[in-house]
Specification:
By secondary structure, the protein is of the alpha/beta class. The chain has 2 domains: about 5-65, no CATH class; about 80-240, 2-Layer Sandwich (Zincin-like). The chain has 7 helices and 12 strands. The strands form 4 sheets. Strands 6-7-9-8 form a 4-stranded mixed β-sheet, with helices on one face. Strands 3-5-4 form a 3-stranded mixed β-sheet, covered by helices on one side. Helix 3 packs across helix 4 (about 185-200). The model has no long low-confidence stretch (mean pLDDT about 90).
Length: about 240
């Protein structure tokens, strides 16, 4: 993988991905994919490295914002022994049952998960992410509805998916999308994020008027918002995919 040296001396690696649909070179950074330079076909490595050097300050800011370790090449994380879901105060111990030659599956048994898996950690983690997605679709809409009713801000619909960098979003039609990784965050952080998205039903921007709405429902929002900037700490590597 190519490496660029930041102004503070850190060496960070990035991946290059060609895309026929891309009209220009762009850089994306998030905890799921790391640092990825997306480029149209035919751009030389020399040009790409020069761009990486130009973007060093932004790269440093982003990896610090996400609190990422961008120095190492991505590798498949270990399968967890337990899943802690702080947002809903749940703990799910994992019992592994090896079954070579079959697709990994997760079954719920009482208050634990049975992971039927082969030797491949990647497919086992993928099965756990599928379970996480189902669990998030069950619980996050309930949390959103409860807060919506509490503060009197309705929304049109809610969807839950694995977003790459956002915790949530709200459309002009008041359709709210939530990141399934919210389940790993402390309840007060989740509450702040859900209030944030609901307030976008009043203001689709981050104007002073928007923040005034947030403060009305979440008086301690400024301190919580600073903490949420580092919330990707709470998401275990296996869940990022």
């Amino acid at each position: 993988m190519p490496i660029v040296k930041l102004h503070d001396g850190r060496d960070v690696s990035y991946r290059v991905r060609e895309s026929k649909r891309s009209r220009r070179v762009r850089l994306t950074i998030n905890p799921r994919d790391g640092i990825v330079m997306v480029t149209p076909p035919g751009v030389s490595q020399r040009v790409l490295h020069a761009l990486a050097l130009d973007w060093r300050e932004w790269i440093a800011h982003q990896i610090d914002e996400f609190d990422m370790d961008a120095s190492a090449s991505p590798k498949e994380p270990a399968v967890p022994a337990v899943i802690q879901l702080a947002a809903i105060a749940e703990q799910w111990p994992i019992m592994e049952r090896f079954s070579p030659g079959r697709e990994a599956q997760v079954r719920m048994r009482d208050r634990s998960l049975v992971l039927l898996r082969g030797e491949d950690d990647a497919s086992a983690n993928a099965a756990l992410r599928r379970w996480l997605a189902r669990h998030a679709r069950r619980h996050l809409p309930e949390l959103l509805t409860a807060i919506s009713d509490e503060i009197g801000l309705p929304y049109r619909s809610v969807s839950v998916r694995a977003q790459r960098s956002r915790w949530g979003s709200c459309s002009h039609r008041h359709d709210i999308s939530l990141n399934q990784q919210l389940l790993f965050l402390p309840p007060e952080w989740v509450r702040h994020i859900l209030i944030h998205e609901l307030c976008h039903t009043l203001e689709l921007n981050h104007s002073n008027a928007f923040w005034a709405h947030v403060e009305r429902f979440d008086p301690n929002w400024q301190a919580t918002r600073k903490s949420v900037r580092h919330a990707w700490h709470c998401v275990p590597p296996w869940a990022l995919g």
